[in-house]
Amino acid sequence: MRDELREELREDEYELLARLAQRYYVDERTQEEIAREFALSRPKVQRLLDRARRSGVVAIHIQAPPWLRLELESQLRETFGLSDAIVCSAGSDPLAEREAVAQRAARYLERRLHDGCVVAVSHGRAVGEVPRFFRPGSRLDVTFVSAMGGSPGVAAPTNPNEICRALAAGCGGQAVSLYAPAYVESVEIRDQLLAQEAIAQSLDRAAQASVALVGIGGTDDGCTMVRSGCLTTDEIARLRSQGAVGDVLGNYVDIDGRPVASPHQDRLLALTVEHLRRVGTVVAVVSEPEKPRAILGILRAGVIGVLVVDEGNARAVLDLAAHEPAMAGRAGGDPLPSQGEV
């Protein structure tokens, strides 16, 4: 190693960089202290320490815990322009993986949420597990708002109103419910409901959220939208035939992130994809082995800023992205501004 470095550095340069690095990284001296000792300016010390790393005088090794998947997270961030990605190591079964993903999502929210935040919340099994693990160290004045209507066919733990209440209870915050079904019988009924002040205010509050916590749904016959009775198996099959691979808040997209109209799209009471694009940080929580194509489509739609996902889906999505390049000119293909931190 020394001989290789000496090809790029003179001996006096090599010695100076090594001495500065020893003081900074091993002796834990400040840059100001080092500057005084070596009669250099502090900016000069900083530049020399940077050079020590670039030239190989300093080699940093991170001893990460075995359950972290830092390289996978970096690949997801770079491939899809995410502000953050959190990958959970493979679990023993789908339920264990879903719980692990929900726990990591809860930890993320605990670190990032602060007083005054408004969080729009979707339905879903993975999202519904998050409140079990969401326990900030101190009270948070955070408001959780339902981002879509519910359904009598949706079990309480996966209903957005119930998830909001559970999250609020976990931090001492507030919950704002949307007392309306996700899908109604007609456009006229939807318009009548939207004309009601309580419903309009709830949806408007969700649209103004600084954070959104969402799930990503698939298009298989056992997906949440079918299990909840919002769509029939025939209707989800029709969506698949139109190229739909997944949804967020009932908004379906194809593998390139382009919108695919649902049979009930004009009767849906939920935030739209355009609403989500205006939210500061959209956190998607997703597991289950049938989800890779759904995740890829939603990521390409440009609405997700943070992805919390299991290892199997993370690897499968990256593999899909490599083998199914996005079509030029797709609806979701234009670069969007990076989603900010909470």
Structure description:
Strands 1-10-9-5-2-3-4 form a seven-stranded parallel β-sheet, sandwiched between helices. The chain has a three-stranded antiparallel β-sheet with strand order 6-7-8. A hairpin with a 2-residue loop joins strand 6 (244-248) and strand 7. The longest helix has 19 residues, at 94-112. The chain has two domains: 2-55, Arc Repressor Mutant, subunit A (Orthogonal Bundle), CATH 1.10.10; 70-323, 3-Layer(aba) Sandwich (Rossmann fold). 46% of the residues are buried. The chain has 15 helices and ten strands. With 342 residues, it is an alpha/beta fold.
Task: List the main descriptive attributes of the protein structure presented here.
342 residues; Arc Repressor Mutant, subunit A; Rossmann fold; 7-stranded parallel β-sheet; 3-stranded antiparallel β-sheet; 45% helix; elongated
Q: Report strand %.
A: 5-15%
CATH topology of the largest domain: Rossmann fold
CATH class descriptor of the largest domain: Alpha Beta
* Element order: H for helix, E for strand: HHHHHEHEHEHEHHEHHEEEHEHEH
Broad structural category = alpha/beta
Mean pLDDT level: 87
Low-pLDDT segments, ≥5 res: 329-342
Question: Count of helices?
Answer: 15
**How many domains, as an integer?**
2
Principal-axis shape equals elongated
- CATH architecture heading of the largest domain: 3-Layer(aba) Sandwich
- Let me know the number of strands: 10
Largest sheet, order of strands side by side? 1-10-9-5-2-3-4
Alpha-carbon distance between the termini? 43 Å
